[in-house]
């Protein structure tokens, strides 16, 4: 791969691989494509459950390509979506696992939240978790 001299660009593919690998390790999954899908869908659900300002604040904390994944297909005028319950969040993530359903959607989403906790500033994640509805906040702990 050609090097641009810009670390955020040159290291971007490795960052995505690292995030997916950590997620798969945490969940004891062998299939990286499944780990990527979980990361993708959970990031989109988080983004769409937040206000536009809070979604943008979180995005600013994400590495370049992860930020691109997060923003792909976003319609800010449709956020935050309703209903914003824990069930709606888990259903939204789970519905994309039609071939092999998630065995434990709550555990899977909590693993992504834990990954974010390791990669994003504590203060930003506090703001994000407080922006979520009560029962959904439990997955952040």
Please tell me about this protein's structure.
The chain has 141 residues and is mainly alpha-helical. It has one domain: Globin-like, CATH 1.10.490.110. It contains nine helices and no strands. Helix 2 (12-27) crosses helix 3 (32-49).
CATH architecture: Orthogonal Bundle
Our measurement of the CA-to-CA distance between the termini, rounded to an integer number of angstroms, reads 39 Å
What structural class do helix, strand and pairing data support?
mainly alpha
Secondary-structure element string: HHHHHHHHH
Q: In the residues, how many domains can be counted? A: 1
Task: Briefly summarize what is shown.
The protein has a single domain (17-140), classed as Uncharacterized conserved protein DUF2267 (Globin-like).
Keywords:
single chain; 141 residues; mainly alpha; Globin-like; 9 helices; 66% helix; globular; DUF2267_sf; DUF2267
Layout of helices and strands:
Layout: H1 7-10, H2 12-27, H3 32-49, H4 52-60, H5 64-71, H6 86-94, H7 105-119, H8 122-131, H9 134-137
Helix pairs in contact: 2-3, 2-7, 3-4, 3-6, 4-8
Pfam families: DUF2267 (PF10025)
